[in-house]
């Protein structure tokens, strides 16, 4: 498929999503969530389409996408590993855990491994403060992270 055909297909599907949801009260976040669900990220070419449909500026849409950490501007890997960076997890060794995970995967936050197996993202509370430090792998929370659990996570995302 050519780049132009792919772009046209993205624009067409984004327009359909927007048309389905623009009547909602406060439709921007639901539209962005649905577009990310559809494409695995929020493609840059959808931002002006959203802005025009909602009668807001491109800058407003861009500001929302870049403000919220859950929106991605590129597709995620097959797995998404979110590591809690909030104070409770930090106080229980979260900085060291984050460094170990980053080193084991060979990537930093907001990056995807070259083999596209995992994307590493920070998250600022998973609600597992009593089980700190914590992470979430593909929507499944993991508490009391230690070196053994990190090794299990790395093996799982690499397989």
TrEMBL record:
Keywords: 2Fe-2S, Iron, Iron-sulfur, Metal-binding. Its cofactor is [2Fe-2S] cluster. GO terms for molecular function: 2 iron, 2 sulfur cluster binding; metal ion binding; oxidoreductase activity. Coiled coil: none annotated. Transmembrane segments: none annotated. Binds 1 [2Fe-2S] cluster. [2Fe-2S] cluster binds at residues 84, 89, 125, 129. Belongs to the complex I 24 kDa subunit family. PANTHER family: BIFURCATING [FEFE] HYDROGENASE GAMMA SUBUNIT, NADH-QUINONE OXIDOREDUCTASE, E SUBUNIT. This is Formate dehydrogenase subunit gamma. It comes from Mesorhizobium zhangyense. The lineage of its organism: Bacteria, Pseudomonadati, Pseudomonadota, Alphaproteobacteria, Hyphomicrobiales.
């Amino acid at each position: 498929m050519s780049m132009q055909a792919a772009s046209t297909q993205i624009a067409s599907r984004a327009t359909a999503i927007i048309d389905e949801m623009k009547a909602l009260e406060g439709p921007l976040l639901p539209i962005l969530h649905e577009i990310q669900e559809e494409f695995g990220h929020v493609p840059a070419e959808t931002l002006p389409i959203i802005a025009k449909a909602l009668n807001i500026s491109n800058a407003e849409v861009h500001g929302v996408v870049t403000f919220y950490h859950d929106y991605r501007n590129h597709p995620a890997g097959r797995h998404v590993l979110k590591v809690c960076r909030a104070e409770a997890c930090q106080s229980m060794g979260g900085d060291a855990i984050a460094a170990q995970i980053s080193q084991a995967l060979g990537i930093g936050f907001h990056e995807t491994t070259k083999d596209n197996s995992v994307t590493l993202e920070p998250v600022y509370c998973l609600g597992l403060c009593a089980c700190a430090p914590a992470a979430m792998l593909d929507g499944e929370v993991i508490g009391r992270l230690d070196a053994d659990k990190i090794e299990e996570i790395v093996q799982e995302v690499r397989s």
